[in-house]
Design brief:
Layout: H1 7-12, E1 28-29, E2 32-33, E3 57-61, H2 66-77, E4 85-88, H3 118-124, E5 136-139, E6 144-147, H4 150-161, H5 175-190, H6 192-197, H7 202-225, H8 236-252, H9 267-277, H10 288-298
Parallel strand pairs: 3-4
Antiparallel strand pairs: 1-2, 3-5, 5-6
Helix pairs in contact: 2-4, 2-8, 5-7, 5-8, 7-9, 8-9
Length: about 325
Amino acid sequence: MQRATTKKDAWTAKRCYPVSMADFPDEMQEGRFERQEDAFRGWVGRDGGPPVEAGRYHLYISLACPWAHRTLIVRSLLGLQEMIGVSVADPMRDERGWAFREGNGHHPDEAEGFEFLSEAYHASDPDFHGRYTVPVLWDKKVRRIVNNSEDDICRMFQECFAGAEARDLFPLHLAEEQAALSDYLYEKVNNGVYRAGFATDQAAYEKAVRDLFLALDEMAVRLERSTFLLGEHMVESDLRLFCTLIRFDSVYHGHFKCNLRRIIDWPPLLRFMRDIYLQPGIAATVSFDHIKRHYYGTHRDLNPSGIVPLGPSAVFEKAGSTG
């Protein structure tokens, strides 16, 4: 989840600048990175929210962002491509936030003609302050954000938009165990890599890395016993882990200094990552080009030159498009 910093920057900046840790002042606490809360938590089809209507809602994402990536995968797995449109942002984010322009694997916004995602945020709340994050679920009828929480959006896709014949990524009999696992993955793995990479204090960095690798060890033990984290059927928690693992060797290992071990050196995690990648519809959502260009090209405090490394060699063959 990546956002620009201030409303003024979003509307008045005319030049492109790299993003630095100074762009996250409200999320740095004594050398630790503490992610901001999601601001929009509306729900389609219940609690007074707007009704489910095909073509009414639009998903704004970046292929580089692991949080947004998960919503794109769920949209694909549940067969919602015709019901919910998608706009893919340029992976090169500056202080104005995510932009929509023509390029390799990204394109102008066809839903509203937004140049920057910040326009959606300020159309929804003119007083919004904070980073402008992906994903965003947008209501085209009333022209406002419904939700910008990837957790909510994935569950909404399942509960409100998917048909009865769609696969169940949130099985009721696993609800309690899955919720606990998902919370653990968020804290130690998904956000753990960011806490390591964005730390400005040695102790904070070391704690984040140790917690991360202990959690990955635990996941590897689980995956020695079963195909997926909770058994033989893939659930949404598996996608949470996958979206971090697929970026790990290319970005988090070096760029975020999570370098105690690589995923390719961890047989259970590598097998799991490959198994999910080869599920129908998932490979097409993965863009190593966007992933590497975004992280190495925008985090200039971590990579001042902006040079994007050629390696590591791809474990997978790229296939398909975002659709």
